[in-house]
Amino acid sequence: MLNKMFSKILATTLIVGLLGLMLASCLHSNDDNSSSSPTVSIGFGNAVNNRTGGGSSDGGNNSSNRGAIENPIETPLRIGLLSPRTGALRDYDLGPVRAAELAVNDIKAAGKNIELISNDTGTDPSIADNSLELLLNDEVHGIVGAYSSLVSTSIVDKVIEENLVMISPASSTQTFTNYPDRGLLFRTVSSNQLWAEVIANEIANDSSARRIAIIFRNDRFGSELAQGVKDRLEATGNTTIAQFTGYEFNRPDSINIASQARAKRIDSVLLISFAEGVDILYALIQHGVGPSNIRMYSTVEDFGSKVAKNKIEKDRPALSAEHIIDINPTPHPEGDPLFNASLREFAPDANDVVYNASTYDAVVVLALASVVANSVDPLEFAKEINGVTKGGRKCRSFADCANLALEGIDIDYDGASGPLEFNDAGEPSTNSYAIFTYGSRGEQGPAKVVIAPLKDSE
């Protein structure tokens, strides 16, 4: 009898409790001022819209007029950023870090729950491996990085093994195009093949470059790019490859390299390097084959200004830069023209480097894929990454794209770096490159921007 009575009391208590919870839920859903709702409102992206020009390409209402759209994802999307605070690419760190922070700020302003955790990789696989382990311990869902192809190739297998998404804003190694990545590897820049095409085309059409020395850092990035240029120059027949020399990037034998270049009686140099290339540069000058005497092509961003204004190594003399041409990836002409100004306003200490926009876009693409998949599970939102960059309705900000996606509209995010249009390999189908010439004091001339693959007429 006692057991039956206890059972009735328990059942009554449970029913009353459930009714109370249901009533509380109904009251809570009508409380616009509540801060504990598990839904995420997306649609209040005015700050983003003002920066990008706002709205989707159909000229419809901006996202703030659509009202809040409920997204049931409560778990934050955790992004790990792996960037080179130290090492030969350290000058490329602060701008991309701030760009990633700006992306997170814009995404949060639109109502998406997202977190960013940043760690150093240097240009050293051992540092990168330790930093990756820290991010794994933080249970991130996706990796933005790395920036060096050497570093990226050293960690990618571990990332895939952990079922995480990895999207690099800078690694251009050709290896990644057909990598066995289980659909988890992406990047917001194209491969070295397109870069090599642009460099070779400029050299082949330069009457001052008929006998060239190609000097490159002997890592995956340098050797791939150098070989790509060499193959294309040999195919044109306009330029003789007088010297083809790779160097160990941590201890370049600069004097021997420069001595060989002089002996080959070259009239031009292509230097594929990072910051360590300055040692080779000064050795070439000492041997009479530097930019004061012959044409020099470089893959170091703003190289002419840096050497002429003594910004690389303070104890080195300043140089004339009038024979220097540097060729580097650059945001697409259809990218966001206000992005750099917006980044400087957000973070005045951000330096202006080419990978700022591609870093911003990498973070936004991951967040949009998470919205479309309605999940922070990497195996789920990875399936949506290519799709959010092409084929749908054009949109220029996270807020606008997210609103369209949550209305069931297929989206095509054109970001800070321009149209992405990922192919099946998870990388842009085209890429833009800036070609800069310099005055003797390092004053930079207007950029010539080309889009690869090149047309036959180029």
Description:
By secondary structure, this protein is an alpha/beta fold. It has 2 domains: 246 residues, Response regulator (Rossmann fold, 3-Layer(aba) Sandwich), CATH 3.40.50.2300; 160 residues, Response regulator (Rossmann fold). Helices cover 39% and strands 18% of the residues. The protein has 15 helices and 17 strands. Strand 14 and strand 15 form a beta hairpin. The chain is elongated. The N terminus is likely disordered.
The CATH homologous superfamily of the largest domain is called Response regulator
Count up the helices: 15
- CATH topology of the largest domain, which one? Rossmann fold
- For the record, the CATH class of the largest domain is Alpha Beta
N/C terminus separation: 95 Å
Mean pLDDT: 83
Rg, nearest Å: 26 Å
Write down the domain tally: 2
Strand content: 15-25%
Q: How much helicity do the residues have?
A: 25-40%
Described by strand count, sense and barrel closure, the largest sheet is: 7 strands, mixed
Oligomeric nature of the chains: single chain
Number of strands: 17
Strand order of the largest sheet: 9-8-10-11-12-16-17
CATH architecture of the largest domain, please?
A: 3-Layer(aba) Sandwich
Spans of at least 5 consecutive residues with low confidence: 1-70
Brief summary of the model shown:
The protein has 458 residues and is of the alpha/beta class. The chain has helices spanning 2-29, 46-52, 63-66, 94-109, 125-137, 149-161, 192-204, 220-236, 254-263, 277-286, 303-308, 339-346, 355-373, 378-381, 398-406, and strands spanning 40-42, 69-71, 77-83, 114-120, 142-144, 165-168, 185-187, 211-217, 240-247, 268-272, 295-298, 324-329, 393-395, 411-415, 418-419, 431-437, 448-452.
